[in-house]
């Protein structure tokens, strides 16, 4: 199934039913008082987060959501039935925004979170409400109010414990496949991964953690260059960033700085995110070059780990470091 993380859609809450003008008509009371019922309230449009969904693909096939209107009031003081609400299920991690103003209306981060995005209109009043000492037979009733309606934007931000970031072809997809049971597309050319990939890291004594491979990050990603602008939002919710660099490239340090700068320019708080630097593809360099790189990066990175996604060297240590780091975060260390 295709991964879709952005959609625009329209919601319309139900209109309220109209109030009724009616009078009692009985055999021995030919001119009875008013007995018009009120109109029913319109249904709401509700957004609900569901862990059963992982993409916004359904919005490609349906982009208009309308709740039921309230029924009109009737005679004999019969009030109209309220309209049924319309519930729209979205993935956990969805952010709802006003399409016109860009205002963030809701951020649904937990399974079962709900948000009433459009409220139904109130029902109109029947003529019983307008009877008075001077007007015993009011022929007045009010119309129901219109339900709210909006064009909205929904953005999905993946909720993952670990985010894999790095330039295209740094080996992130290979690492994801070795760290988890995920099976992403892997190839020796840029932009093999065209959408975020998720995997689950299983560890003996630790609860499973979710790893996300964030694609499309290149220089200028925060301004929309490459694919990065579409996917940078998925970095926001990760607890740990695993920055993967290709140790076999000549400009290793510069490549690291490119991604670090893009993350900082996208959101400053990402600079304070716990980060593990992975020197990948060490099977393609000699020991002296590896020592040189380790010395360079150890000056400004607390956690530097040489690995080879191809041969598996260092992967056990990387798994252990990820789990230990998450465990310390949970303990508040």
UniProtKB/TrEMBL annotation:
Keyword hit for Nucleotide-binding: yes
A Pfam family annotated for this UniProt entry: MMR_HSR1
Molecular-function GO term, any one: GTP binding
GO BP, sorted A to Z: ribosome biogenesis
Domain OBG-type G: 160-327
CC terms in the record's Gene Ontology section: cytoplasm
Domain Obg: residue ranges: 1-159
Residues that, per the record, bind Mg(2+): 173, 193
Cofactor needs: Mg(2+)
Annotated InterPro entries: G_OBG (IPR031167), GTP-bd (IPR006073), GTP-bd_Obg/CgtA (IPR014100), GTP1-OBG_CS (IPR006074), GTP1_OBG_dom (IPR006169), GTP1_OBG_dom_sf (IPR036726), OBG_GTPase (IPR045086), P-loop_NTPase (IPR027417)
Keywords from the UniProt entry: Cytoplasm, GTP-binding, Hydrolase, Magnesium, Metal-binding, Nucleotide-binding
Principal subcellular localization: cytoplasm
Gene3D superfamilies in UniProt: GTP1/OBG domain (2.70.210.12), P-loop containing nucleotide triphosphate hydrolases (3.40.50.300)
EC number: 3.6.5.-
Subunit relationships: Monomer.
Protein role: An essential GTPase which binds GTP, GDP and possibly (p)ppGpp with moderate affinity, with high nucleotide exchange rates and a fairly low GTP hydrolysis rate. Plays a role in control of the cell cycle, stress response, ribosome biogenesis and in those bacteria that undergo differentiation, in morphogenesis control.
This protein's name: GTPase Obg
Classification of source organism: Bacteria, Pseudomonadati, Thermodesulfobacteriota, Desulfobulbia, Desulfobulbales
């Amino acid at each position: 199934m295709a991964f879709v993380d952005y959609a625009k859609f329209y919601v319309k809450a139900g209109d309220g039913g109209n109030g009724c003008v009616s009078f009692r008509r009985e055999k021995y009371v030919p001119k009875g008082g008013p007995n018009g019922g009120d109109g029913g309230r319109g249904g709401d449009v509700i957004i609900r987060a569901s862990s059963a969904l992982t993409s916004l693909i359904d919005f490609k096939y349906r982009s208009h959501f309308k709740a039921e209107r309230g029924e009109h009031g009737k005679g004999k003081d019969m009030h109209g039935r309220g309209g049924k609400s319309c519930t729209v299920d979205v993935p956990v991690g969805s952010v709802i925004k006003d399409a016109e103003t860009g205002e963030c209306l809701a951020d649904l981060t937990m399974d079962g979170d709900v948000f009433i995005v459009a409220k139904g209109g109130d029902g109109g009043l029947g003529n019983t409400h307008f009877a008075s000492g001077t007007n015993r037979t009011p022929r007045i009733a009010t119309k129901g109010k219109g339900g709210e309606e909006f064009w909205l934007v929904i953005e999905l931000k993946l909720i993952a414990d670990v985010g894999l970031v790095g330039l295209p072809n740094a080996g992130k997809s290979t690492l994801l496949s070795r760290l988890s049971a995920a099976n992403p597309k892997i190839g020796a050319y840029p932009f093999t991964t065209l959408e975020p990939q998720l995997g689950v890291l299983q560890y003996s004594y630790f609860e499973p953690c979710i790893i996300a491979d964030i694609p499309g990050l290149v220089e200028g990603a925060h301004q929309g260059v490459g694919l990065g602008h579409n996917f940078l939002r998925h970095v926001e919710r990760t607890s740990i960033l695993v920055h993967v660099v290709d140790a076999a490239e000549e400009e290793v340090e510069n490549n690291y700085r490119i991604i670090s700068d893009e993350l900082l320019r996208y959101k400053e708080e990402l600079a304070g995110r716990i980060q593990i630097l992975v020197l990948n593809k060490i099977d393609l360099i000699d020991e002296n070059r590896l020592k040189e790189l380790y010395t360079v990066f150890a000056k400004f990175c607390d956690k530097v780990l040489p690995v080879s996604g191809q041969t598996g060297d260092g992967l056990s240590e990387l798994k252990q470091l990820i789990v230990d780091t998450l465990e310390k975060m949970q303990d508040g260390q």
